[in-house]
Request: fold
Amino acid sequence: MPPMDSPRLISPAHDPSLIDRRAWPMDGRLDYWHAPDGWALRRYRLGEGERGRMLVLGGRGDMVEKYLEVIHHWAQRSWSVTSFDWRGQGGSGRMTDDPLCGHIQDFGQWIGDLHAFVADWRAEGSGPAVIVAHSMGGHLLLRALAEGMTAPDAAVTVAPMMGVHSAPLPRWLAAGIAESMCAMGFAKKQAWTQKEESDRQRRMRQKRLTHDPDRYADELWWRDHSRDIALGPPSWRWVEQALHSTRLMERERGLERIAVPLLILAAQQDRLVSTAAIRRAAARIPGARLHVYGREAAHEILRELDPVRLDALARIDGFLDEVAPQGAVR
Reply:
């Protein structure tokens, strides 16, 4: 189990529908998977898998701990659930000397990790095998599929990062500034400041992510109790790469080649990713299903207040039961 002294270990035996969101389930497995270049990615697995196997991909700055609640939900539905921290965040090391800077030199590094991880994950057992991906994870999944990664039996993207909000700057100006900052030697520096001790900034960040102050507080609790997983703002290179990669996917034909059954959930008032870009991407992917929530949802739909969160889980579960029924193997 995780090398932590504060988080509790709990058993769901008393009420399998409930989970302590600030504890690791007792029957989970935490270890490391090594990328082809030897980089260690922290991996978590829960559930036996009578229903099938599921891979959960987080977003920028995320760590497995943020998704323990939904991982538990799907494990209780008999999925064997796997998740990992992206290279350079969570418990998967850092790419700069600043432990709070979310840096990557090239999104292609993450695409390469995903290709290799999925290949090993698919080889671990028989299907159905499905992937659920949030935000940046959704972008990386769709880009990997567009570039020819072996498709799962079904996929779900939640608020996928198909476009980045750069307001009040137009996208072209934001991209130009990011490119200039990288050219001037600031590629590995934080693109903005984030005062973690500021209550005002924390409230502003919460409103961008979720309407649920308790689930937002869970993230802060994990960060405060496990400082090695905490991450702050992205680097200028991350900003440049995010703007470049999303632009690339809009301009090049690739989404049209995605053949996997796909459900996309989005929030109309998302202040981090572009819902208009999500709509355009969904229209290009053959057979993709899109549901857009209204003002009741912010960016982290799976960590929203229960009316939204439970609705999203029901939509995902119903979709997977339809397109990747138990016993089906692609």
Remarks:
- Residues 72 and 294 are 27 Å apart (CA to CA).
- The beta strands are 8-10, 23-25, 29-34, 40-46, 52-57, 79-84, 129-134, 154-158, 262-267, 289-293.
